[in-house]
Amino acid sequence: MRYALFVYDPAESLETLTAEEEQAVHDEYVALAEVPGLVGHRLQPPDTATTLRITDGKTVASSQAAEATQQHLAGFYLLDSAGADQALEIAARIPAARLGGSIHIQPLLTET
Q: What's this model's pTM, rounded to 2 decimal places?
């Protein structure tokens, strides 16, 4: 089964860490890159994004965020997994989950 693991992170999550703690978090993310079947992507900060909406047949693109939240989508992983238990296990290893963020795990549909 394939899963998307969406990483939501408060912007200030690393600000309170010492240099050593920040390096340890970085090392954890590097270790995740070695998990078979897992591919991760970091995103630029939300203020670099463009939001597209179509209202009354008119397309409008703006730099306004899709919705205001305390957390922003910081990145995502795509996982080829044996099942939901493995997806949960890997999601628990993502540092953002314990640094005030959250991981949204969602199965992908298979197109036929």
A: 0.82
